[in-house]
Amino acid sequence: MLLLMAMPDSASAQCSMCSLTAENATNHGNTQGKGLNKGILFLLAIPYAAALGIGILWYKRFRGKKTVNVDNDPIVLN
After folding, report:
1. Nearest Cα to 36, choosing from 49, 16, 21, 24?
2. What is the Cβ-side half-sphere exposure of residue 4, based on CA atoms within 13 angstroms?
3. Along the chain (78 residues), what's the average pLDDT of each consecutive run of 10 residues?
4. Residue 29 confidence (pLDDT)
5. Secondary structure of 6-22 in the HEC alphabet?
6. Which of 8, 24, 29, 46 pairs with 36 at a CA distance of 20 to 30 A?
7. Rounded Cα distance, 35 and 20, in Å
8. pTM of the complete model
9. What residue ranges do the domains of the chain occupy?
10. What whole-number distance in Å separates Cα of residue 67 and Cα of residue 69?
11. Are 14 and 21 in contact, with CB atoms under 8 Å apart?
């Protein structure tokens, strides 16, 4: 499995209409391809940002959890 991931093969990850629009936009100097890439990155970042927010809230909530108070009385062994 690791060997297959080390040597990726090119694949069409977009629908034919999206890839055609992106190719034509970059060939003619339009910025539609850049906008498409920014949109993809935005959609990719949202789940990670949500998971990070939940993780921070979880950490802040359980980090200050109360512990059992131990008396400061000296220990007498005899």
Report:
1. 21
2. 1
3. 65 66 73 78 94 94 72 76
4. 74
5. HCCCCCCCCCHHHHHHH
6. 8
7. 14
8. 0.48
9. 33-63
10. 6
11. no
Q: Do 14 and 22 form a contact (C-beta atoms < 8 A)?
A: yes
How confident is the model at residue 11, as a pLDDT?
A: 58
Distance CA 46, CA 60 (A): 21
Tokens of 4: 């297959």
Closest listed residue to residue 35, CA positions, set 48, 21, 50: 21
Q: Three-state DSSP class for 37? A: helix
Name the token pair of 50. 């949500």
Cβ neighbours for 31, distance < 8 A, ≥ 6 positions apart: 25
Taking the C-alpha atoms of residue 36 and residue 21, their distance in angstroms, rounded to an integer, is 10
Place of tokens 């909530």: 61
Q: What is the token pair recorded at 18?
A: 């999206």
